[in-house]
Protein backbone atom coordinates (compact mmCIF):
# COMPACT_ATOMS: atom_id res chain seq x y z
CA UNK A 1 0.00 0.00 0.00
CA UNK A 2 1.35 3.44 -0.90
CA UNK A 3 0.96 6.16 1.69
CA UNK A 4 1.63 9.66 0.38
CA UNK A 5 1.84 13.13 1.89
CA UNK A 6 1.27 12.63 5.58
CA UNK A 7 0.96 14.87 8.61
CA UNK A 8 4.49 16.28 8.57
CA UNK A 9 3.79 18.35 5.47
CA UNK A 10 0.39 19.26 6.80
CA UNK A 11 1.98 20.66 9.96
CA UNK A 12 4.46 22.62 7.86
CA UNK A 13 1.66 24.13 5.81
CA UNK A 14 -0.43 25.00 8.85
CA UNK A 15 2.68 26.56 10.34
CA UNK A 16 2.95 28.81 7.28
CA UNK A 17 -0.68 29.78 7.62
CA UNK A 18 -0.11 30.63 11.29
CA UNK A 19 2.93 32.71 10.38
CA UNK A 20 0.91 34.53 7.74
CA UNK A 21 -1.88 35.30 10.19
CA UNK A 22 0.59 36.36 12.86
CA UNK A 23 2.28 38.75 10.45
CA UNK A 24 -1.08 40.30 9.62
CA UNK A 25 -1.96 40.65 13.30
CA UNK A 26 1.38 42.30 14.02
CA UNK A 27 0.86 44.87 11.27
CA UNK A 28 -2.68 45.60 12.44
CA UNK A 29 -1.58 45.97 16.06
CA UNK A 30 1.10 48.45 15.12
CA UNK A 31 -1.32 50.58 13.17
CA UNK A 32 0.95 50.27 10.20
CA UNK A 33 3.62 52.47 11.87
CA UNK A 34 6.14 49.71 12.58
CA UNK A 35 7.40 48.29 9.31
CA UNK A 36 7.82 44.54 9.03
CA UNK A 37 10.57 43.48 6.59
CA UNK A 38 8.90 43.31 3.18
CA UNK A 39 10.69 40.13 2.09
CA UNK A 40 9.40 38.17 5.10
CA UNK A 41 5.77 39.15 4.54
CA UNK A 42 6.03 38.41 0.80
CA UNK A 43 7.48 34.94 1.35
CA UNK A 44 4.87 34.01 3.94
CA UNK A 45 2.04 35.32 1.78
CA UNK A 46 3.25 33.29 -1.21
CA UNK A 47 3.56 30.13 0.86
CA UNK A 48 0.20 30.42 2.57
CA UNK A 49 -3.11 29.38 1.01
CA UNK A 50 -5.50 32.03 -0.24
CA UNK A 51 -7.75 32.14 2.81
CA UNK A 52 -10.31 34.37 1.11
CA UNK A 53 -11.02 31.70 -1.51
CA UNK A 54 -10.97 28.71 0.83
CA UNK A 55 -14.24 26.87 1.36
CA UNK A 56 -15.38 25.88 4.83
CA UNK A 57 -14.33 22.24 4.51
CA UNK A 58 -16.30 19.55 6.29
CA UNK A 59 -13.32 17.19 6.06
CA UNK A 60 -9.74 18.00 5.11
CA UNK A 61 -7.89 14.67 5.45
CA UNK A 62 -8.88 12.42 2.55
CA UNK A 63 -7.87 9.06 1.09
CA UNK A 64 -8.44 8.40 -2.61
CA UNK A 65 -8.01 5.12 -4.48
CA UNK A 66 -6.78 4.45 -7.99
CA UNK A 67 -5.79 1.66 -10.37
CA UNK A 68 -2.32 1.72 -11.95
CA UNK A 69 -3.26 3.24 -15.29
CA UNK A 70 -2.04 6.42 -16.96
CA UNK A 71 -5.51 7.96 -16.82
CA UNK A 72 -5.24 8.29 -13.04
CA UNK A 73 -2.97 11.23 -13.93
CA UNK A 74 -5.28 14.03 -12.66
CA UNK A 75 -5.02 12.60 -9.14
CA UNK A 76 -1.23 12.33 -9.31
CA UNK A 77 -0.82 15.82 -10.73
CA UNK A 78 -3.26 17.43 -8.26
CA UNK A 79 -1.15 15.84 -5.54
CA UNK A 80 2.32 16.55 -6.94
CA UNK A 81 1.59 20.15 -7.97
CA UNK A 82 0.01 21.03 -4.62
CA UNK A 83 -3.46 21.71 -6.02
CA UNK A 84 -5.10 19.66 -3.27
CA UNK A 85 -3.17 21.61 -0.64
CA UNK A 86 -4.17 24.91 -2.24
CA UNK A 87 -7.73 23.92 -1.35
CA UNK A 88 -6.76 23.04 2.23
CA UNK A 89 -6.94 19.30 1.48
CA UNK A 90 -4.41 16.77 2.78
CA UNK A 91 -4.66 13.75 0.57
CA UNK A 92 -3.40 10.18 0.69
CA UNK A 93 -3.40 8.24 -2.60
CA UNK A 94 -3.59 4.45 -2.49
CA UNK A 95 -3.36 2.01 -5.43
CA UNK A 96 -6.06 -0.68 -5.32
CA UNK A 97 -5.84 -4.35 -6.32
CA UNK A 98 -8.75 -4.25 -8.76
CA UNK A 99 -11.91 -2.35 -9.65
CA UNK A 100 -14.17 -4.38 -7.34
CA UNK A 101 -11.99 -3.78 -4.29
CA UNK A 102 -11.82 -0.09 -5.17
CA UNK A 103 -15.61 0.23 -5.44
CA UNK A 104 -16.22 -1.75 -2.24
CA UNK A 105 -13.85 0.49 -0.30
CA UNK A 106 -15.63 3.64 -1.52
CA UNK A 107 -18.98 2.12 -0.52
CA UNK A 108 -17.64 1.10 2.90
CA UNK A 109 -16.15 4.54 3.52
CA UNK A 110 -12.55 3.32 3.65
CA UNK A 111 -11.89 5.55 0.65
CA UNK A 112 -13.33 9.06 0.37
CA UNK A 113 -13.38 8.77 -3.42
CA UNK A 114 -11.64 7.09 -6.32
CA UNK A 115 -10.57 6.96 -9.94
CA UNK A 116 -13.41 4.87 -11.40
CA UNK A 117 -14.56 3.31 -14.62
CA UNK A 118 -17.21 5.53 -16.19
CA UNK A 119 -19.74 2.72 -15.89
CA UNK A 120 -19.08 1.96 -12.22
CA UNK A 121 -21.23 4.67 -10.60
CA UNK A 122 -24.03 3.82 -13.05
CA UNK A 123 -23.77 0.06 -12.57
CA UNK A 124 -23.75 0.39 -8.78
CA UNK A 125 -26.69 2.80 -8.76
CA UNK A 126 -28.93 0.54 -10.88
CA UNK A 127 -27.82 -2.51 -8.89
CA UNK A 128 -25.77 -4.46 -11.42
CA UNK A 129 -23.34 -6.19 -9.07
CA UNK A 130 -22.97 -4.33 -5.79
CA UNK A 131 -25.91 -1.99 -5.16
CA UNK A 132 -24.93 1.45 -3.91
CA UNK A 133 -25.58 5.10 -4.73
CA UNK A 134 -22.40 6.46 -6.30
CA UNK A 135 -22.13 9.81 -8.06
CA UNK A 136 -19.58 11.60 -10.20
CA UNK A 137 -19.03 15.32 -10.71
CA UNK A 138 -15.79 15.01 -12.70
CA UNK A 139 -14.85 13.14 -15.87
CA UNK A 140 -11.15 12.29 -15.72
CA UNK A 141 -10.31 11.93 -19.42
CA UNK A 142 -11.29 11.07 -22.97
CA UNK A 143 -10.00 8.07 -24.94
CA UNK A 144 -6.96 6.17 -23.63
CA UNK A 145 -7.77 2.51 -24.36
CA UNK A 146 -6.75 0.03 -27.02
CA UNK A 147 -7.45 -3.52 -28.19
CA UNK A 148 -4.43 -5.82 -28.46
CA UNK A 149 -4.18 -9.32 -29.93
CA UNK A 150 -1.42 -11.90 -29.59
CA UNK A 151 1.25 -12.22 -32.26
CA UNK A 152 -0.32 -15.52 -33.35
CA UNK A 153 -3.76 -13.96 -33.88
CA UNK A 154 -2.24 -10.94 -35.61
CA UNK A 155 -0.53 -13.15 -38.17
CA UNK A 156 -3.85 -14.86 -38.88
CA UNK A 157 -5.61 -11.48 -39.23
CA UNK A 158 -3.09 -9.86 -41.55
CA UNK A 159 -4.12 -11.63 -44.80
CA UNK A 160 -7.58 -10.07 -44.42
CA UNK A 161 -6.41 -6.49 -43.67
CA UNK A 162 -6.05 -3.90 -46.46
CA UNK A 163 -2.47 -2.63 -46.73
CA UNK A 164 -1.02 0.73 -47.76
CA UNK A 165 1.64 1.03 -50.45
CA UNK A 166 4.34 1.04 -47.76
CA UNK A 167 3.15 -2.35 -46.52
CA UNK A 168 1.57 -1.04 -43.32
CA UNK A 169 -2.09 -1.74 -42.44
CA UNK A 170 -4.87 0.67 -43.30
CA UNK A 171 -6.44 1.99 -40.10
CA UNK A 172 -8.84 1.70 -38.43
CA UNK A 173 -8.57 -2.09 -38.29
CA UNK A 174 -12.09 -3.45 -38.01
CA UNK A 175 -13.22 -6.63 -36.32
CA UNK A 176 -14.33 -7.80 -39.77
CA UNK A 177 -10.70 -8.90 -40.21
CA UNK A 178 -10.78 -10.88 -36.98
CA UNK A 179 -14.02 -12.65 -37.83
CA UNK A 180 -12.43 -15.33 -40.10
CA UNK A 181 -10.04 -16.18 -37.26
CA UNK A 182 -12.85 -16.49 -34.71
CA UNK A 183 -14.87 -18.61 -37.17
CA UNK A 184 -11.85 -20.91 -37.64
CA UNK A 185 -11.53 -21.37 -33.87
CA UNK A 186 -15.26 -22.07 -33.61
CA UNK A 187 -15.16 -24.66 -36.40
CA UNK A 188 -12.28 -26.40 -34.64
CA UNK A 189 -14.24 -26.44 -31.37
CA UNK A 190 -11.84 -24.07 -29.63
CA UNK A 191 -13.13 -21.11 -27.56
CA UNK A 192 -11.82 -17.71 -28.59
CA UNK A 193 -11.04 -15.95 -25.31
CA UNK A 194 -10.47 -12.23 -24.76
CA UNK A 195 -9.90 -10.13 -21.67
CA UNK A 196 -11.48 -6.90 -20.40
CA UNK A 197 -11.10 -5.28 -17.02
CA UNK A 198 -14.59 -5.32 -15.42
CA UNK A 199 -18.19 -6.07 -16.43
CA UNK A 200 -19.25 -2.39 -16.33
CA UNK A 201 -15.97 -1.07 -17.73
CA UNK A 202 -15.59 1.11 -20.77
CA UNK A 203 -13.25 -1.61 -22.02
CA UNK A 204 -16.01 -4.23 -21.92
CA UNK A 205 -18.39 -2.04 -23.90
CA UNK A 206 -15.75 -0.86 -26.37
CA UNK A 207 -14.54 -4.40 -27.04
CA UNK A 208 -18.14 -5.58 -27.46
CA UNK A 209 -18.93 -2.64 -29.72
CA UNK A 210 -15.90 -3.34 -31.94
CA UNK A 211 -16.59 -7.08 -32.14
CA UNK A 212 -20.30 -6.66 -32.88
CA UNK A 213 -19.57 -4.04 -35.56
CA UNK A 214 -17.52 -6.74 -37.28
CA UNK A 215 -20.24 -9.40 -36.99
CA UNK A 216 -18.72 -11.20 -33.97
CA UNK A 217 -21.23 -11.76 -31.17
CA UNK A 218 -19.66 -10.91 -27.79
CA UNK A 219 -22.42 -12.59 -25.75
CA UNK A 220 -25.30 -11.60 -23.48
CA UNK A 221 -25.69 -11.37 -19.72
CA UNK A 222 -28.65 -13.20 -18.21
CA UNK A 223 -30.44 -13.13 -14.86
CA UNK A 224 -28.91 -16.48 -13.87
CA UNK A 225 -25.76 -16.27 -16.00
CA UNK A 226 -23.62 -13.23 -15.34
CA UNK A 227 -20.66 -14.47 -17.37
CA UNK A 228 -21.71 -12.33 -20.32
CA UNK A 229 -21.05 -15.28 -22.65
CA UNK A 230 -24.58 -16.34 -23.67
CA UNK A 231 -24.62 -16.92 -27.47
CA UNK A 232 -21.04 -15.60 -27.66
CA UNK A 233 -18.66 -16.13 -30.58
CA UNK A 234 -15.85 -14.56 -28.53
CA UNK A 235 -15.72 -15.28 -24.79
CA UNK A 236 -14.93 -12.18 -22.73
CA UNK A 237 -13.73 -12.42 -19.13
CA UNK A 238 -12.22 -10.17 -16.48
CA UNK A 239 -8.46 -9.69 -16.13
CA UNK A 240 -6.94 -6.89 -13.97
CA UNK A 241 -5.15 -4.29 -16.15
CA UNK A 242 -1.54 -4.86 -15.02
CA UNK A 243 -1.96 -8.62 -15.60
CA UNK A 244 -3.14 -8.31 -19.21
CA UNK A 245 0.28 -8.71 -20.91
CA UNK A 246 1.32 -11.73 -18.83
CA UNK A 247 -2.08 -13.40 -19.32
CA UNK A 248 -1.77 -12.85 -23.08
CA UNK A 249 1.79 -14.18 -23.08
CA UNK A 250 0.65 -17.29 -21.20
CA UNK A 251 -1.93 -18.00 -23.91
CA UNK A 252 -4.87 -17.85 -21.49
CA UNK A 253 -6.45 -15.14 -23.67
CA UNK A 254 -5.89 -14.24 -27.34
CA UNK A 255 -6.53 -10.53 -27.00
CA UNK A 256 -7.72 -7.84 -24.63
CA UNK A 257 -9.05 -4.32 -24.25
CA UNK A 258 -7.27 -2.22 -21.63
CA UNK A 259 -5.99 1.26 -20.87
CA UNK A 260 -2.41 2.38 -21.07
CA UNK A 261 0.34 1.52 -20.57
CA UNK A 262 -0.69 -2.13 -20.96
CA UNK A 263 -1.22 -2.10 -24.75
CA UNK A 264 2.15 -0.47 -25.34
CA UNK A 265 3.67 -2.90 -22.86
CA UNK A 266 2.69 -5.76 -25.19
CA UNK A 267 4.57 -4.03 -28.03
CA UNK A 268 7.53 -3.30 -25.75
CA UNK A 269 7.72 -6.97 -24.71
CA UNK A 270 7.12 -8.22 -28.25
CA UNK A 271 4.17 -10.40 -27.27
CA UNK A 272 1.23 -8.70 -29.00
CA UNK A 273 -0.05 -6.08 -31.43
CA UNK A 274 -2.52 -3.29 -30.58
CA UNK A 275 -4.93 -3.28 -33.52
CA UNK A 276 -7.17 -0.33 -32.69
CA UNK A 277 -7.59 2.47 -30.14
CA UNK A 278 -10.87 3.46 -28.57
CA UNK A 279 -10.43 6.85 -30.27
CA UNK A 280 -11.05 4.94 -33.52
CA UNK A 281 -14.02 3.03 -32.09
CA UNK A 282 -15.76 6.10 -30.59
CA UNK A 283 -13.93 9.37 -31.06
CA UNK A 284 -13.45 11.33 -27.82
CA UNK A 285 -15.26 8.87 -25.63
CA UNK A 286 -15.32 9.48 -21.84
CA UNK A 287 -13.15 6.92 -20.08
CA UNK A 288 -12.75 7.33 -16.30
CA UNK A 289 -14.54 9.44 -13.69
CA UNK A 290 -13.89 10.49 -10.12
CA UNK A 291 -16.54 8.79 -7.99
CA UNK A 292 -17.76 9.24 -4.43
CA UNK A 293 -20.69 7.80 -2.54
CA UNK A 294 -23.86 9.89 -2.61
CA UNK A 295 -23.82 9.87 1.19
CA UNK A 296 -20.26 11.24 1.28
CA UNK A 297 -21.18 13.98 -1.20
CA UNK A 298 -24.19 14.99 0.89
CA UNK A 299 -22.12 15.14 4.08
CA UNK A 300 -19.16 16.96 2.49
CA UNK A 301 -20.49 19.40 -0.15
CA UNK A 302 -17.73 22.00 0.21
CA UNK A 303 -15.00 19.40 0.40
CA UNK A 304 -16.38 17.83 -2.77
CA UNK A 305 -16.24 21.14 -4.63
CA UNK A 306 -12.68 21.69 -3.39
CA UNK A 307 -11.62 18.26 -4.69
CA UNK A 308 -13.16 18.95 -8.10
CA UNK A 309 -11.40 22.32 -8.23
CA UNK A 310 -8.03 20.66 -7.66
CA UNK A 311 -8.75 17.99 -10.28
CA UNK A 312 -9.81 20.57 -12.88
CA UNK A 313 -6.53 22.43 -12.33
CA UNK A 314 -4.61 19.17 -12.78
CA UNK A 315 -6.46 18.46 -16.03
CA UNK A 316 -5.68 21.95 -17.32
CA UNK A 317 -1.98 21.42 -16.50
CA UNK A 318 -1.92 18.09 -18.34
CA UNK A 319 -3.24 19.55 -21.61
CA UNK A 320 -2.01 23.13 -21.59
CA UNK A 321 0.39 24.51 -24.21
CA UNK A 322 -0.24 21.61 -26.61
CA UNK A 323 0.66 18.94 -24.05
CA UNK A 324 3.94 20.64 -23.15
CA UNK A 325 3.79 19.20 -19.63
CA UNK A 326 3.34 15.60 -20.73
CA UNK A 327 7.06 14.61 -20.45
CA UNK A 328 7.01 15.69 -16.81
CA UNK A 329 3.71 13.85 -16.30
CA UNK A 330 5.28 10.70 -17.78
CA UNK A 331 8.15 10.90 -15.28
CA UNK A 332 5.69 11.30 -12.39
CA UNK A 333 3.44 8.44 -13.53
CA UNK A 334 6.39 6.08 -14.03
CA UNK A 335 7.12 6.17 -10.29
CA UNK A 336 6.17 3.07 -8.32
CA UNK A 337 3.74 5.19 -6.25
CA UNK A 338 1.59 5.61 -9.34
CA UNK A 339 1.67 3.43 -12.48
CA UNK A 340 5.12 2.00 -11.98
CA UNK A 341 5.80 1.19 -15.64
CA UNK A 342 8.83 2.23 -17.69
CA UNK A 343 8.68 5.88 -18.66
CA UNK A 344 9.38 4.87 -22.27
CA UNK A 345 6.26 2.70 -22.31
CA UNK A 346 4.05 5.40 -20.75
CA UNK A 347 5.43 8.07 -23.08
CA UNK A 348 4.53 5.97 -26.13
CA UNK A 349 0.92 7.12 -25.82
CA UNK A 350 0.95 10.03 -23.35
CA UNK A 351 3.05 12.23 -25.62
CA UNK A 352 0.78 11.99 -28.66
CA UNK A 353 1.90 8.87 -30.49
CA UNK A 354 0.80 5.24 -30.47
CA UNK A 355 2.72 2.20 -31.63
CA UNK A 356 0.71 -0.57 -33.25
CA UNK A 357 2.75 -3.38 -34.80
CA UNK A 358 6.35 -2.98 -33.64
CA UNK A 359 7.91 -0.18 -35.67
CA UNK A 360 4.51 1.16 -36.83
CA UNK A 361 4.33 4.28 -34.68
CA UNK A 362 1.66 6.79 -35.68
CA UNK A 363 0.66 10.24 -34.47
CA UNK A 364 -2.44 10.10 -32.26
CA UNK A 365 -2.38 13.51 -30.54
CA UNK A 366 -5.73 12.95 -28.85
CA UNK A 367 -5.08 9.45 -27.56
CA UNK A 368 -5.06 10.92 -24.04
CA UNK A 369 -7.21 14.03 -23.51
CA UNK A 370 -7.60 15.40 -20.01
CA UNK A 371 -9.14 18.86 -20.43
CA UNK A 372 -9.72 20.11 -23.97
CA UNK A 373 -13.07 19.45 -25.66
CA UNK A 374 -14.73 19.94 -22.25
CA UNK A 375 -13.32 16.55 -21.27
CA UNK A 376 -13.85 17.03 -17.53
CA UNK A 377 -17.56 17.94 -17.74
CA UNK A 378 -19.90 15.06 -16.74
CA UNK A 379 -22.37 14.99 -19.64
CA UNK A 380 -25.74 13.27 -19.16
CA UNK A 381 -25.45 11.94 -22.71
CA UNK A 382 -22.23 10.12 -21.80
CA UNK A 383 -24.01 8.42 -18.91
CA UNK A 384 -26.87 7.43 -21.20
CA UNK A 385 -24.50 5.85 -23.74
CA UNK A 386 -23.15 3.54 -21.04
CA UNK A 387 -26.67 2.68 -19.94
CA UNK A 388 -27.61 1.79 -23.54
CA UNK A 389 -24.70 -0.65 -23.68
CA UNK A 390 -25.74 -2.20 -20.38
CA UNK A 391 -29.18 -2.71 -21.87
CA UNK A 392 -27.81 -3.88 -25.23
CA UNK A 393 -25.91 -6.77 -23.62
CA UNK A 394 -28.48 -7.75 -20.98
CA UNK A 395 -27.00 -6.18 -17.85
CA UNK A 396 -30.27 -4.25 -17.77
CA UNK A 397 -32.56 -7.23 -18.40
CA UNK A 398 -35.86 -5.44 -19.09
CA UNK A 399 -36.77 -2.64 -21.48
CA UNK A 400 -36.82 0.84 -20.00
CA UNK A 401 -38.54 3.98 -21.34
CA UNK A 402 -36.35 6.85 -22.50
CA UNK A 403 -37.23 8.83 -19.36
CA UNK A 404 -35.68 6.16 -17.15
CA UNK A 405 -32.30 6.65 -18.80
CA UNK A 406 -32.50 10.39 -18.17
CA UNK A 407 -33.52 9.92 -14.53
CA UNK A 408 -30.56 7.62 -13.83
CA UNK A 409 -28.13 9.92 -15.64
CA UNK A 410 -29.28 12.91 -13.56
CA UNK A 411 -29.03 10.93 -10.35
CA UNK A 412 -25.45 9.79 -10.99
CA UNK A 413 -23.80 12.52 -13.09
CA UNK A 414 -23.62 15.86 -11.28
CA UNK A 415 -22.67 18.77 -13.56
CA UNK A 416 -24.15 21.16 -10.98
CA UNK A 417 -21.29 20.39 -8.58
CA UNK A 418 -18.76 20.57 -11.41
CA UNK A 419 -19.91 24.02 -12.51
CA UNK A 420 -19.68 25.39 -8.95
CA UNK A 421 -16.05 24.29 -8.90
CA UNK A 422 -15.44 25.73 -12.37
CA UNK A 423 -17.00 29.10 -11.47
CA UNK A 424 -14.87 29.29 -8.32
CA UNK A 425 -11.70 28.74 -10.35
CA UNK A 426 -12.78 31.41 -12.85
CA UNK A 427 -13.46 33.86 -10.01
CA UNK A 428 -9.98 33.13 -8.62
CA UNK A 429 -8.31 33.69 -11.98
CA UNK A 430 -7.16 30.07 -12.24
CA UNK A 431 -9.34 29.15 -15.24
CA UNK A 432 -11.08 30.84 -18.14
CA UNK A 433 -14.82 30.90 -18.75
CA UNK A 434 -14.52 29.74 -22.38
CA UNK A 435 -12.97 26.47 -21.19
CA UNK A 436 -16.28 25.32 -19.69
CA UNK A 437 -19.62 24.52 -21.37
CA UNK A 438 -21.77 27.22 -19.77
CA UNK A 439 -25.32 27.09 -21.09
CA UNK A 440 -25.30 23.38 -21.97
CA UNK A 441 -28.27 21.19 -21.07
CA UNK A 442 -25.90 18.31 -20.41
CA UNK A 443 -26.28 16.73 -23.83
CA UNK A 444 -23.75 16.62 -26.63
CA UNK A 445 -25.00 17.02 -30.18
CA UNK A 446 -25.79 13.68 -31.87
CA UNK A 447 -22.47 11.88 -32.25
CA UNK A 448 -21.51 10.34 -35.58
CA UNK A 449 -17.90 9.27 -35.17
CA UNK A 450 -18.28 5.60 -34.29
CA UNK A 451 -16.53 2.81 -36.17
CA UNK A 452 -19.88 1.55 -37.53
CA UNK A 453 -21.12 5.11 -38.35
CA UNK A 454 -24.28 4.61 -36.26
CA UNK A 455 -25.44 7.96 -34.86
CA UNK A 456 -25.94 8.29 -31.10
CA UNK A 457 -28.45 10.83 -29.79
CA UNK A 458 -28.53 10.70 -25.98
CA UNK A 459 -32.10 11.98 -25.96
CA UNK A 460 -33.33 8.86 -27.84
CA UNK A 461 -31.74 5.78 -26.23
CA UNK A 462 -34.30 3.24 -27.42
CA UNK A 463 -34.13 4.54 -30.97
CA UNK A 464 -30.34 4.15 -30.77
CA UNK A 465 -30.60 0.54 -29.59
CA UNK A 466 -32.93 -0.32 -32.47
CA UNK A 467 -30.18 0.46 -34.99
CA UNK A 468 -27.88 -2.44 -34.05
CA UNK A 469 -28.05 -5.80 -35.80
CA UNK A 470 -26.45 -7.51 -32.76
CA UNK A 471 -27.81 -6.67 -29.31
CA UNK A 472 -31.06 -6.45 -27.35
CA UNK A 473 -33.69 -4.00 -28.50
CA UNK A 474 -36.79 -2.54 -26.91
CA UNK A 475 -39.11 -5.33 -25.78
CA UNK A 476 -36.47 -8.10 -25.88
CA UNK A 477 -34.94 -10.09 -23.05
CA UNK A 478 -32.64 -13.08 -22.55
CA UNK A 479 -34.36 -16.16 -21.11
CA UNK A 480 -32.85 -18.61 -18.61
CA UNK A 481 -32.06 -20.92 -21.52
CA UNK A 482 -30.20 -18.19 -23.39
CA UNK A 483 -32.89 -17.42 -25.96
CA UNK A 484 -33.79 -13.87 -26.92
CA UNK A 485 -37.55 -13.36 -26.68
CA UNK A 486 -39.85 -10.40 -27.21
CA UNK A 487 -41.47 -9.38 -23.93
Automatic annotation (TrEMBL):
It is found in: Endomembrane system. InterPro entries: NrtA/CpmA_ABC-bd_dom. Keywords: Cell inner membrane, Cell membrane, Membrane, Transport. CDD domains: PBP2_NrtA_CpmA_like (cd13553). Coiled coil: none annotated. GO terms for cellular component: endomembrane system. It comes from the Bacteria. Signal peptide: none annotated. The keyword Membrane applies. Its main location: membrane. PANTHER family: ALIPHATIC SULFONATES-BINDING PROTEIN-RELATED (PTHR30024), BLL4572 PROTEIN (PTHR30024:SF43). This is Nitrate ABC transporter substrate-binding protein.
Amino acid sequence: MTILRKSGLRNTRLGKVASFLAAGALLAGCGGETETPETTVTEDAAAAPNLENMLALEKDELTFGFIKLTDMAPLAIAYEKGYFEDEGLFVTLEPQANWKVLLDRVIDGELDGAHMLAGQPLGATIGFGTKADIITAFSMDLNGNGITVSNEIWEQMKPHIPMREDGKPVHPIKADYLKPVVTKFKNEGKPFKMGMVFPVSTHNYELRYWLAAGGIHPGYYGADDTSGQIQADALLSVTPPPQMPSTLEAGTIYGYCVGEPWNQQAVFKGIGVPVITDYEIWKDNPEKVFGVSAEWAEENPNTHIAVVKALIRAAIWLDENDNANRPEAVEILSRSDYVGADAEVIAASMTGTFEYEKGDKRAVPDFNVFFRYFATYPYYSDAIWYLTQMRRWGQIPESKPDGWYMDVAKKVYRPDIYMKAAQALIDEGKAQKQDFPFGTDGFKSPQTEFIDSIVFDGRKPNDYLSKFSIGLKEGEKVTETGEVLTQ
